[in-house]
Amino acid sequence: MKTEILSMLRETDGYISGQQICEQFQVSRTAVWKVMEQLKAEGYQIEAVRNRGYHLEKSPDVLGEAEIKSLLNTSWAGCDVLYFPETDSTNTRAKRLGDEGAVHGTLVAADRQTGGKGRRGRRWESPAGSSIYMSILLRPDIPPDQAPMLTLVMAQSTAEAIRIRTGEEALIKWPNDIVINGKKVCGILTEMSTEIQWINHVVIGVGINVNTEYFPEELTETATSIYLESGGKQQRSGLIAEVLKQFERYYAMFLETGNLSAMQEEYNRLLVNRNREVKVLEPGNEYNGYAIGINETGELLIRTEDGQIREVYAGEVSVRGIYGYV
Predict the structure, then answer these.
(1) What is the dihedral of CA 131, 133, 136, 142, to 10 degrees?
(2) Nearest Cα to 150, choosing from 99, 207, 101, 191?
(3) Dihedral of CA 234/235/238/239: which sign?
(4) What is the dihedral sign for C-alpha 305, 152, 207, 316?
(5) Residue pLDDT, tens place only, 88-136
(6) Which residue has the higher pLDDT, 137 or 23?
(7) In this structure, what are the phi and psi dihedrals at residue 264, rounded to the nearest 5 degrees?
(8) What is the DSSP string of 275-303?
(9) What pTM was computed for the model?
(10) Is the separation of the CB atoms in 39 and 2 below 8 Å?
């Protein structure tokens, strides 16, 4: 009921009477009052006026199951929301839930991670109160070799969501980073449980530096936050809802075609390294070339110095700008 009341408050421009809420949910005025007091305790500014009702004046930047659910505008993404003030890793939580039978679209979110993970086992710093740490569980009916494309689907979705919510030009550093003004603002990690010919489940984790005000000195050249680039604080729950909304849209395109052809042009337009010289770092090998864009299955096309076109697969490969991170 807390989620539904919060949604009603958000959807009502003026006041909504306590009687309306009681009739809607078949509960007592005391029950409604208790929910309002809970919301106030969490930081929501709710005005209560006799004979008029309740009005939501301001929402705090808090995360929680009711907060996230009240903002969702999706069909299946976020159908179940599990929120933790602190967890080891949202990906780890989501994978365990997947093994236990959690449904397609289940979202795990946390305010802080103690064991956040990045690509190739790197640690992802995950302090409380400023960033988004979330993972979505999927059960796609696709062959296992198509699953890596889902990382690019989420990257496109996240970049678009950041643009819509903040107005900032968020670009993609293939395959799994989002950058603003040349610095990393988001990382994406996809993990899956598979058999030989089918997928049990896929978990896509997204970490976004939203309202972070400073970074350790060793990261200031490569990492940033939406706040540092835009100068304005953002509502994290609203950005989560927008990411899920966009992900549903691009995921549908992916399922319809079985590849990235429907979003390939748009993805390439956002590719930060496109038509620029990059260094490709493979295990035991590295070379320079020009990034052309992705193909319809998500490989990065590189034109080498001798004119050949090479398809670069994600995994153990890293692509960097020859003068730094991008």
Answers:
(1) 100
(2) 191
(3) positive
(4) negative
(5) 999 999 999 999 999 999 999 999 998 766 555 555 556 788 999 999 9
(6) 137
(7) -60, -45
(8) TSEEEEEETTEEEEEEEEEE-TTSPEEEE
(9) 0.88
(10) yes
